[in-house]
Fold these 2 entries.
Entry 1:
Amino acid sequence: MPVNALFKPFHLGHLQLPSRVVMAPMTRSFSPGGVPNSKVIEYYRRRAAAGVGLIITEGTTVNHKASNGYPNVPQFFGEAPLAGWKKVVDAVHAEGGKIVPQLWHVGSVRRVGTEPDASVPGYGPTEKLKDGQVVVHGMSKQDIQDVIGAFAQAARDAKAIGMDGVEIHGAHGYLVDQFFWEGTNQRTDEYGGDLAGRSRFAIELIQAVRAAVGPDFPIIFRFSQWKQQDYSARLVQTPEALGEFLKPLSDAGVDIFHCSTRRFWEPEFDGSDLNLAGWTRKLTGKPTITVGSVGLDGEFLQFMVNTDKIAQPASLDNLLQRLNNDEFDLVAVGRALLVDPDWAVKVRDGREQDILPFSRDALMTLV
Ligand SMILES: Cc1cc2nc3c(=O)[nH]c(=O)nc-3n(C[C@H](O)[C@H](O)[C@H](O)COP(=O)(O)O)c2cc1C
């Protein structure tokens, strides 16, 4: 099947992408001290030079003491980390690419002992105790305002260093999603209750980011039904409920929804072939990004545990058909681009036989 649909430009206001291929955000843990270094700069530059239209960086933490959950994750605050990101931006732009940071707070996933301040526990919507010790600090309204302020400042900084937009990480069971999900949000104040109440945190956060960056700076919002704590969890069960969930987020200032699924070809609801990105586009009228096992024959969570499995390159026909039908606008590619910086140009130039398979070994180095 012709692949041109993937290599048509995309326009949204001032954002002009040379192709529909988006690099999915992937934590790589190669930024000691929270600073993206020359290897990280080169890693992103290579993808921009090889057909990727938009890079969404790995999750990068906002300026709050509990935002980080893992070693060697880059920060999106402080002089040295922002100077590092500025070099990444300049390198990507020099290749004609576009880039946005994925702004991240891990919430209750954080454990005591994690950098930068080992004494700080996870922060989440609801307090959690274990053996009399606070393992998750239940967030006060002041904590909520502090985190919202940290996201807004990060977005302001993104704009100041020349990023092309921001992505807010609202998916996968991290902080924003912990507020959405009833399994992790048992608050009785206005930030809890039904899904509308549990969405208040995200809505205020998006509004604050929008106010910080002005009307023309793209805001991408990533969300998912699945949680890393429960792969079968769902926020909504019907298209109507999805529409009700998305409307206030869309009205708050989201420009593009990034609909995270593990397999892009799976219908989201019975009775229609549309996937989550398809339904989201239809219900909100906003552009969407699809993601999940594009170009590979095994889904990514199988590869996050110890395994010697290898994901082999797979046909793009189903994806191209959906893209040609305008089911979604953009296509995020994770592992295939992690292991092979030239994935997009190989697809574009019909060099499928040269595409590299993915195995966990690829996580050990930045290429
Ligand atoms: C090593 C690795 C790290 C990831 N880190 C993040 C992350 O920081 N933020 C995020 O939203 N998703 C993250 N993901 C999920 C990817 O963005 C993507 O949704 C997932 O890999 C499915 O796409 P794929 O099947 O093309 O790999 C990560 C995935 C991998 C493989």
Entry 2:
Amino acid sequence: MLTQSGQGLADLGVLGTGKMGPRLAAMFARAGRKVILASRDPDRAQAIVDELDIPGLRAGSYADALCTPAILPAIFIRDGLFDLLDRSCRKLTGKLLVDISNPYNADYSDFVTPWDSSGAEELQRRFPQAKVVGAFKNVFWEVFDHPEFGETLSDVLITGNNETAKARFLELADGTPFRYLDAGPLINSRTVERLTMITGNLGRQLNSYPRMNWRLLTQPHPEAMGAVS
Ligand SMILES: NC(=O)c1ccc[n+]([C@@H]2O[C@H](COP(=O)([O-])OP(=O)(O)OC[C@H]3O[C@@H](n4cnc5c(N)ncnc54)[C@H](OP(=O)(O)O)[C@@H]3O)[C@@H](O)[C@H]2O)c1
């Protein structure tokens, strides 16, 4: 259940003020959610929030953001995301944990997770008290500044093992400029995360990097429409 406008706690806490955090915080706030943008240095978050000047968006510390019912860490796993959450693990109980991680190593040549796992699965394994939903992994930061590709919205693939958590995520994301597709359980994050590596390489080949995202092209199929029995 989202908070009523102007009342109560925030709906979402975003941790980190790098490329992704402020853009995601701004996007959710523009869609009408109450969002805390949090930083290790709350003054840095405050300066960003002042500049963005979006109703419903306020600045805070990581501790503030971890008090919200939905938490979105915009922090690399290689930079210590797991340890950071470990220190506040009791605050994660029952929370929606929106995982945007692509678990790149420092030189972006590979992932720090093994092939038979993913950032999202590792997060869920380490924090079973939270409900992890993977999202935004294929969306490069610049896309949030201009999300429409012509008339077309691009796709965000969401993964998760808990249907209620996925529904809560979709409620939070209502009104944001993407089409959300259910990409199945968390195990599918292995594919989604590694797709980001390929997208980055293709974008550079096509002189589009970082302005690219996926859209699954489809046409109604006669059998699916019930025209053929
Ligand atoms: N960049 C993309 O296009 C993109 C796309 C999809 C997914 N992602 C994922 O989004 C997450 C964040 O990516 P990003 O590009 O926003 O990263 P970034 O620009 O490096 O920002 C990460 C933020 O993490 C916080 N942080 C906390 N502890 C840190 C530490 N020990 N060292 C460095 N930073 C620390 C910092 O914010 P404070 O100083 O404010 O605390 C920092 O600004 C990653 O998991 C990445 O895989 C990124």
